Amino acid sequence: MKKIKLRIGLIMIMFSLAGCVSTGVQLKKIPVNQPPGDPQLVKKIRVGYNPVGCVMTSEGKYVYVANSVSNSISKIDTATLKVVSTIQMNGSPVWVAICKPAKKVCVTAREGRSLSLIDQSGNYLSAVIDLPHVPEKVVVHPTQKLAYVGSGEASYIMVVDLERKRILKNIITTSECIGLAITPDGKFLYVSTRADRYNLQIISTAEQAVVNRTNVGSAPSAIAMDPQGEYAYVANHGSDDVTVIHVPEHHPVLTFSVGQGPVDLAVTPSGKYLYVSCQLDNSIVIVDTKTNQVVHRIDMGVVPWGIAFAPDGSRVFVANYKGKSAGRSTSFSGPQMTLGTGAGDRINNNMVFVFNTNKYH
Asked: How many Å apart are CA 262 and CA 217, to the nearest integer?
């Protein structure tokens, strides 16, 4: 009798579940290999071809993306996750920075050998400043209307007055300048170079001169500062690692391995995590800045490049420069890339990936 009742109960449960399905109620499926606290892909936003750099506005309302092959800048609304404006420009734009005092977006164009200024409110190109050399990264002083521009073919930093729209001076370094980052207080500019020795140089923005030099890994490609300005992180493309610099002493404290070919990196607004774009193994590596240990890896399946965080760190925007990398055979040159123009360069390379960072913020 008990066995009969048990069978009847099981049948009733099965009919109940079937009824739920038939009435349109779906049982929630938990994604495989995506624990609740891991970053979750929210959306892929279509932009121009071969996006490289991206930057978030200070209030967090928009993300600007430099599309190197499409010769355009995409403006993304972070609330709707849609492109709301496309600004056309010439010369292969690659890197972007926000000038808060002037409410401009600064854009370097490699083939155009220029620094362009985009008006944030009107979404138009307000000025184009000619440069003597091919520009790479650009950073803007937090309190002054000065931009610092590096070049992969000149052994100096170009200091640009954004109001007068001209170069004020050149700060001599020992080699070509690739990665740039400025301390939050604006006192120091960190520069990675192609030099075999002393490939990280520290410039005093008050003295407009190099005040310190040190060594990091092989072929340093990008630099990121933590929000407090206590540490700087240098991505070493050639040695597949990141060097941590203690900013008050301008001295390396350790180096740790990440993925293959790191090309860009950014610290979350909380300072707790470091995100690293790894070009050659198609991944984003997440590092705990307290332990300097890799705690998570996002397999992108494409080549990630520029990284931008929401002000609260809850979301991260990652530019998809091109389709899946072939690996170490990719050469390191200039800003670690060769701009493509053929049909093959226009496949799987016109997206910005948006992730919820969840616990890694």
From this structure: 11
